[in-house]
Amino acid sequence: MKRYNIIQEKSYAFALEILRIAKNLRAESTDRVLINQLVRSGVPVGADVEEAIGAQ
């Protein structure tokens, strides 16, 4: 049985929010470098959490 993990849930929600923000910024802005950096720094948090869970 898989245990409920609040960190896993919140990191997933965080990644979705980052992608939503980036999508909205792309529609309004031309500064793609900063938007891409936002996505590259925010989304991998969930992958790090999954890796830590798998290592347990």
Overall SS class = mainly alpha
Helical stretch tally? 3
Strand portion, in percent? under 5%
Helix-strand pattern: HHH
What level of helicity do the residues show? over 70%
Q: For the report, how would you describe the main beta sheet?
A: none
| Shape, principal axes of CA atoms | elongated
E-strand count: 0
Name the average pLDDT: 87
Low-pLDDT stretches:
none
Supply Rg: 14 Å
Distance between the termini: 15 Å
Give a nutshell description of this structure.
This protein has 56 residues and is an all-alpha fold. It is 82% helix and 0% strand. The model has no long low-confidence stretch (mean pLDDT 87).
For this entry, give a set of tags.
23S_rRNA-intervening_sequence, about 55 residues, mainly alpha, 23S_rRNA_IVS_sf, elongated, single chain
Question: What this model shows, in words?
Answer:
The chain has 56 residues and is mainly α. The protein contains 3 helices and no strands. Helix 1 runs antiparallel to helix 2 and helix 1 runs antiparallel to helix 3. The protein is elongated and about 40 Å long. The mean pLDDT is 87.
